[in-house]
Automatic annotation (TrEMBL):
Family matches, as InterPro entries: 23S_rRNA_MeTrnsfrase_RlmA (IPR052939), Methyltransf_11 (IPR013216), SAM-dependent_MTases_sf (IPR029063)
Residue ranges occupied by any Methyltransferase type domain in the UniProt entry: 52-138
Identification of the protein by name: Methyltransferase type 11 domain-containing protein
Length: 250
């Protein structure tokens, strides 16, 4: 294995825009939820005339769909990701809208389908507002305490934070805003990190995991983890996900 310094330097210079994780190939693994969200999304997009994908990242998941509806719009709040999505999806006629976390810039009842993979924070009132009568919301959300084994390695115990992103609370909030939740599934998926470069890269990409992360700030913890990985023992964490399908009450 290359030195700590070489692995870290490579990870610090690598591109982290978009929602692709190909850079981790051979360096880290993560099990996938059993429902196969990209495949599920592709099927739903083929059935409608208008759709909105929230927090699309670089548009990678939408781009996997073989067929898109005549009206296809995606939103993204981080400018480098939005530009990446334009390059990827623009040639297919997709409109990419920059957002700042405020109200969605669309008229009431614009879309037949609203989707998301790992939305930052679902705004149920806005989702309901832009959906047509009988429209559907289909999304894969990050669940509670996702990847917290890794996060707490750097930040220590996060007792209150572990209670966030509770799927039952999200269902209750969706139904309070006029959506009838028809499907809720949960998954806990094993993650393995095999070299310290993979850890640095994921913490640069998922900046909300360790908000003050830098190699200099956490060098001692990184070197401790590097020693474990060099001994042949991967760092194991678990991502949590839940699938929500809901329909606007008629």
């Amino acid at each position: 294995m290359r030195s700590f310094e070489e692995l870290v330097a490579e990870a610090e210079s690598a591109d982290v825009t978009g929602w692709g994780f190909g850079w981790l190939e051979g360096r880290a693994t993560e099990e996938r939820p059993p429902w196969g969200f990209a495949r599920l999304l592709a099927g739903r997009l083929a059935e409608v005339q208008s759709a909105l994908d929230l927090d699309t990242g670089g548009g990678e998941v939408v781009a996997e769909a073989p067929a898109l509806p005549p009206t296809m719009v995606v939103t993204e709040g981080w400018a480098p990701n939005a530009e990446r999505a334009r390059r990827l999806l623009g040639p297919r006629g997709v409109q990419v809208v920059d957002t700042d976390g405020g109200p969605l810039p669309f008229a009431d009842g614009t879309f037949e389908l609203v989707t998301a993979r790992h939305p930052v924070r679902p705004d149920w009132a806005e989702i309901r507002r832009v959906l047509q009568p009988g429209g559907r919301y289909v999304a894969q959300h990050v669940g509670p305490a996702s990847a917290f084994e890794l996060i707490e390695h750097f930040l220590g115990p996060l007792i209150e934070e572990r209670k966030g992103r509770d799927p039952e609370r999200e269902v209750a909030a969706a139904e309070q805003h006029g959506l009838a939740v028809e499907r809720l599934e949960r998954a806990r998926c094993r993650m393995e990190f095999h070299d310290i470069g993979a850890v640095v890269w994921i913490l640069r990409k998922c900046v909300w995991w360790v908000p003050d992360f830098s190699v200099a700030r956490y060098e001692d913890r990184l070197r401790e983890l590097d020693a474990q990985l060099r001994s042949g023992h991967p760092f194991v964490a678990h991502s949590t996900r839940h699938l929500i399908e809901a329909r606007v009450r008629r």
